[in-house]
Amino acid sequence: xxxxxxTPRYYALLPAAGVGxxxxxxxxxxxxxxxxxPMLRHAVDxxxxxxxxxxxxxxxSAADGxxxxxxxxxxxxxxxxxxxxxxxxxxxLNALRALRGVVGEGDMIMVHDAARPGLTPALIARLxxxxxDDAAGGLLALPVVDTVKRAAGSPLLSxxxxxxxxxxxxxxxxxxxxALLLRALAGAPDANAITDDASAVEMLxxxxxxxxxxxxxxxxxxxxxxRIAEMYLAAGEQG
Length: 239
Ligand SMILES: Nc1ccn([C@@H]2O[C@H](COP(=O)(O)OP(=O)(O)OP(=O)(O)O)[C@@H](O)[C@H]2O)c(=O)n1
Ligand SMILES: C[C@](O)(CO)[C@H](O)COP(=O)(O)O
Hints:
- By secondary structure, this protein is α/β, with parallel strands linked by helices.
- It has a single domain, classed as Alpha-Beta Complex (Spore Coat Polysaccharide Biosynthesis Protein SpsA, Chain A), CATH 3.90.550.10.
- Helix content is 27%, strand content 23%.
- The protein is built from seven helices and eleven strands.
- It has a seven-stranded mixed beta sheet with strand order 5-4-1-6-10-7-11.
- It is globular and about 55 Å long.
- The two termini are 27 Å apart.
- The mean pLDDT is 96.
- The structure holds cytidine-5'-triphosphate and the ligand C[C@](O)(CO)[C@H](O)COP(=O)(O)O.
- The ligand C[C@](O)(CO)[C@H](O)COP(=O)(O)O binds next to strand 10.
- Cytidine-5'-triphosphate binds at residues 15-22, 29-30, 59, 84-88, 91, 113-115, 219, 221.
- This is 2-C-methyl-D-erythritol 4-phosphate cytidylyltransferase.
- It is an enzyme of class 2 (transferase).
């Protein structure tokens, strides 16, 4: 699906209002130090280093007391929005509503987890190039390489093997036009069931492009992920 003669601008939007329950740290995981700086700062710096990105918006909760130390107000190219919601979807939707009239309807929004510190300008460029002018947008993702089991029972049993052909693991950034993403999230039935932006867009009948990402762009979810993220950051490969 292709459309439009409008030349879009590319914006980054980072939901950073989660509590990191699965990390079970002292505070929200986006502020944990990974490879020498806060996790969130790695993600923001990848967008700041990309010449393709017009501006970066970071969305935190109204009560957040740590953001100013990580992203000082004078930092170029970044604006903090204090409108985080109860779910990731709510956080992104609140930010899109706050940006109405600030970004154009046809401009492209790259939504990226604050908890993915391994993003690089090369991966951002790959997403933008891969999506091109496809009106359905697209996302970074990785093909599943392991054998996939369906679990059942207690104790857990391997009830079936799910064919992995055609299965991909969604990463971020996920990129859509402002208008499409707002329509998708505003119309989505259940914020708790929408774990990524692409799933809301799919519900409108669109099929976003899958662009191969890189393992270094993992989401830091569990404590053991910190070491893996640090390994990729130290290796320096751009993805
Ligand atoms: N209400 C929420 C929930 C999540 N997020 C953000 O969405 C991304 C998704 O990552 P995830 O691992 O789900 O983060 P948390 O919700 O913090 O983690 P958990 O589910 O373990 O609590 C993170 O950048 C997180 O800060 C958000 O902005 N607002
Ligand atoms: C958006 C995401 O990171 C894509 O993999 C993921 O869906 C976040 O979901 P989670 O269930 O909160 O980990």
